[in-house]
């Protein structure tokens, strides 16, 4: 397996955790999203992923994209340990937590969107930071309420074993911290994050541990 | 089953198609996203979905949210007809097409984001329309290239049977048309959309056919 990744990309971070949890070794192909005006725009990577987005996973002659689709694929071909709960309702719950991050927070705050805000719309750095904070705060407030109220919450989002929900939560927390967002208002999220980061699969997937870390 | 839906919500539209394809009857609970400053913000719906977002599905005492999680749930509890291809790689491909829309296009263009652009950032209506068009164009250009090049493309996104990919594609096309985005540059997307709309499950899920349509 070969993972096209950028150390700071939180979508790449999700897939790195999944690969670690499954105990799968893989080749790390760094695609730098900032250097040289965006190495991901280079023709070579465009032949791998037409949009120039990371991550992409090469496996068995297939080129897969979209982090959640890649993680579901890994979970299907290497079922142990499972990354989703054992019942349809449990899986729907775990997936909904993951999608709250992957659809309702992350797409609004990724690099290409922040660039559009300052570049095309000409908003100030302060307004861009407020935009970032607004979507994290909105999303985390909802997520915190769900996690704090739900009896399924354990050491992690769905019980004590890592699920797709945690694979999205931890990189989003990392990203929010990087942008200096105060996270005191989200004690359940932070408790889950801090516990997850004691596990090797999460800790070794962190941006600072990647070969392309700066 | 009870579906909390808004006729114009493209995420609700996705779930309505899934329910129709599975032949499941359901109660339609309309949640109006615009009237009275957003009926979804009313306390009653907040007890169903804390974020006030649609759709939500009530089934068997469970309250499910996030359209893709709901659709995967429906596919697990009512496997026929399947909404994903039969192989892990095929499923990853269908999910990646769906997520390209659900993560890379739709979240940037939904109501709360457009409101933030004009309300909080004070961008002009024209700049808001350009924003909308930018993300549709970026996403559809990529999707068109994938669908036009992939041998799995049939009458629909993955062969001739409806999959999760089509359940996302058709509502996104509807949404783009509503905003007056020219779609001539996406002949494969439009061919798939037009064929899908000849199928009852899609046609009857369309916004204009819903009880709360205006």
Q: Can you tell me about this structure?
A:
- The structure is a homodimer of 214-residue chains.
- Chain A has 10 helices and 4 strands.
- With 214 residues, the first copy, chain A, is an alpha+beta fold.
- Chain A has 2 domains: 2-81, Glutaredoxin; 88-201, Glutathione S-transferase Yfyf (Class Pi), Chain A, domain 2 (Up-down Bundle).
- In chain A, strands 2-1-3-4 form a 4-stranded mixed β-sheet, with helices on one face.
- In chain A, strand 3 (56-59) and strand 4 form a beta hairpin.
- In chain A, helix 1 (10-21) runs parallel beside helix 4.
- The mean pLDDT of chain A is 94.
- At the A-B interface, strand 4, helix 4, helix 5, helix 6 and helix 7 of A face strand 4, helix 4, helix 5, helix 6 and helix 7 of B.
List keywords for this structure.
7% strand; Glutaredoxin; 214 residues; homodimer; Glutathione S-transferase Yfyf (Class Pi), Chain A, domain 2
